């Protein structure tokens, strides 16, 4: 049994210690916005925040966490879709299939929290999530729009 602080709520999770955090979030907590992609922390579809840091949840066991750590999923970023990134995603029609987008938004939110005015190079260096549809230019534009659009290129 694990006690996890997910989206500001402490949840008791009945799972083996080696169960990936992703499956505890999806199956036990019932929050299905976080997606399974590769299972080896490469694609980023499973990205959540742990104490504000973008973390790929598919390869982290629940035993690595306790209720003192704040885990935030896409559902906890903004329950009503009003986060500036979510609004920019919609305004710029970023997703095609949309599968990777919750992880992409979570990675982008962590970037903006650490660097409110990222350059193009900052975005390319930090957003390493994989999008099979190739919407990277729109992702970059949405991040810049959410940041206020005034950052330098490069």
Automatic annotation (TrEMBL):
User: InterPro entries, per this entry?
Assistant: 2Fe-2S-bd, 2Fe-2S-bd_dom_sf, 2Fe-2S_ferredoxin-like_sf, 2Fe-2S_ferredoxin-type, 2Fe2S_fd_BS, Beta-grasp_dom_sf, Diverse_Oxidoreductases
MF terms from GO for this chain are: 2 iron, 2 sulfur cluster binding; metal ion binding; oxidoreductase activity
UniProt superkingdom: Bacteria
Give start and end of each 2Fe-2S ferredoxin-type domain. 1-77
Supply the Gene3D superfamilies for this chain.
Answer: 3.10.20.30, [2Fe-2S]-binding domain (1.10.150.120)
Question: Which residues constitute the signal peptide according to the record?
Answer: none
Respond yes or no to whether keyword Nucleotide-binding is given for this record.
no
User: Which keywords does this chain's UniProt record carry?
Assistant: 2Fe-2S, Iron, Iron-sulfur, Metal-binding, Oxidoreductase
The family database entries (PANTHER family) matched by this protein are listed as: BLR6218 PROTEIN, OXIDOREDUCTASE WITH IRON-SULFUR SUBUNIT
Protein name according to UniProt? Isoquinoline 1-oxidoreductase, alpha subunit
Q: What is the lineage of its organism?
A: Bacteria, Pseudomonadati, Pseudomonadota, Alphaproteobacteria, Acetobacterales
């Amino acid at each position: 049994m694990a006690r996890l602080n997910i989206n500001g709520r402490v949840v008791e999770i009945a799972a083996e210690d080696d169960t990936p955090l992703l499956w505890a979030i999806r199956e036990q907590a019932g929050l299905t916005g976080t997606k399974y992609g590769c299972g080896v922390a490469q694609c980023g579809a499973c990205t959540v925040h742990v104490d504000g840091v973008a973390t790929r949840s598919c390869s982290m066991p629940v035993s690595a966490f306790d209720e003192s750590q704040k885990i935030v999923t896409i559902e906890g970023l903004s329950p009503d879709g009003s986060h500036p990134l979510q609004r920019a995603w919609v305004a710029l029609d970023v997703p095609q299939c949309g599968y990777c987008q919750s992880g992409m938004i979570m990675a982008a939110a962590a970037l903006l929290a650490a660097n409110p005015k990222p350059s193009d190079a900052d975005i390319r260096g930090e957003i390493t999530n994989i999008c099979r549809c190739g919407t990277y230019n729109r992702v970059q534009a949405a991040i810049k729009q959410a940041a206020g659009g005034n950052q330098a290129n490069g």
